[in-house]
UniProtKB/TrEMBL annotation:
One Pfam family here: spore_CmpA
Organism: Sediminibacillus albus
InterPro entries in alphabetical order: CmpA
Identification of the protein by name: Cortex morphogenetic protein CmpA
Superkingdom, natural source: Bacteria
């Protein structure tokens, strides 16, 4: 997990920003899915 992403997730959790947590979560799973597809090929 990239450092910038960890920092944003930490800030979202500390501020209890549910919208930002959901958006970052979706981004993370999209990123993982995209990268795992390129690795398998």
């Amino acid at each position: 997990m990239p450092n910038w992403f960890k920092k944003q997730m930490t800030e979202a959790f500390l501020s209890k920003d549910l919208y930002q947590i959901k958006v970052l979560n979706q981004c993370w799973f999209f990123y993982r899915k995209k990268n795992s597809a390129t690795v398998k090929q």
